[in-house]
């Protein structure tokens, strides 16, 4: 049962100044409230000290204020767990919202910013690359491999778009092209079933790589979910294999983002939590 403490009436109760009705209410409350009983006992102890000091000629002390300071401290100490619980709940809700948003809420296979690409190519800012990722593109973040994206260019040929990204780090250079059909009418399933035609367009759209390809190295082509990734690397064989595996992992992860955006629920939350732990996913 929830009831209010009678702190304001304690001093008057101890002094015998409460009217009979309020006194009965106070006594009924004291029969159930150990905290208020302790407060009454403290008032009575202070009252005895006051009388003792008065009889001995010592200067008086405001015992009421002393007790009320203790009361306020008690109220603050009681409020701390409540405030802590509220902060915990707010933090939990904030983490849930962050995970929900990070789980691919707006990922799709629509072209989005890629619809503005031109055949001559257009340099992309970091914000534009992030926008492409939100629309289902991979645009892999390879910092976990020690490679920083130094530039990116978007191209378009008909209904096919391509992004050429240059990475550098550890004395090595990597050029990666990601090519995929544009427009909401193209889905991963349609691309997978289109076979040779989609691959042919992708190869043409990725031809702009020749100007930025490292002078020496390896070239690997992989297809994930209808998108083609052409990797030109000056890394050694083992490092190139690790690079391609990472590109495939990110591409497959992006496909899962798209599906999570469609189905929502726990799958989206779980992916969001994973992305909060590893922002490069």
Automatic annotation (TrEMBL):
List the transmembrane segments: 78-100
Q: Where is the Putative zinc-finger domain?
A: 9-37
* UniProt xrefs under InterPro entries: Anti_sigma_zinc_sf, Znf_put
One Pfam match = zf-HC2
Q: What ranges does the record give for the region Disordered, renumbered to this chain? A: 181-214
Q: Which domain of life is it from?
A: Bacteria
Q: Where is the composition biased (Low complexity)?
A: 190-211
Recite the UniProt keywords alphabetically: Membrane, Transcription, Transcription regulation, Transmembrane, Transmembrane helix
User: What protein name does the entry list?
Assistant: Putative zinc-finger domain-containing protein
Higher taxonomy: Bacteria, Bacillati, Actinomycetota, Actinomycetes, Micrococcales
């Amino acid at each position: 049962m929830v009831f209010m403490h009678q702190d304001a009436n304690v001093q008057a109760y101890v002094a015998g100044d409460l009217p009979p009705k309020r006194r009965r209410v106070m006594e009924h409350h004291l029969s159930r409230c150990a905290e208020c009983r302790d407060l009454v006992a403290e008032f009575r102890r202070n009252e005895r000290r006051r009388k003792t000091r008065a009889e001995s000629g010592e200067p008086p002390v405001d015992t009421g204020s002393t007790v009320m300071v203790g009361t306020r401290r008690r109220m603050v100490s009681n409020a701390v767990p409540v405030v802590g619980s509220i902060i915990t709940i707010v933090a939990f809700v904030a983490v849930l919202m962050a995970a929900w948003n990070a789980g691919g809420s707006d990922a799709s296979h629509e072209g989005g910013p890629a619809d503005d690409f031109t055949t001559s190519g257009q340099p992309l800012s970091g914000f534009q690359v992030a926008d492409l990722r939100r629309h289902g593109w991979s645009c892999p973040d390879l910092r976990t491999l020690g490679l920083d994206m130094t530039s990116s260019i978007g191209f378009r040929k008909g209904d096919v778009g391509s992004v050429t990204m240059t990475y550098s780090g550890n004395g090595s250079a990597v050029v990666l092209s990601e090519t995929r059909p544009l427009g909401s009418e193209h889905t991963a399933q349609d691309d997978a079933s289109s076979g040779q035609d989609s691959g042919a367009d992708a190869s043409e759209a990725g031809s702009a790589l020749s100007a930025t390809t490292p002078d020496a190295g390896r070239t690997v082509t992989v297809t994930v979910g209808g998108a083609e990734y052409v990797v030109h690397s000056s890394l050694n064989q083992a490092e190139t294999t690790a690079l391609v595996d990472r590109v495939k992992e990110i591409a497959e992860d992006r496909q899962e983002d798209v599906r999570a955006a469609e189905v929502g629920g726990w799958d989206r939350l779980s992916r969001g939590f994973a992305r909060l732990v590893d922002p490069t996913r």
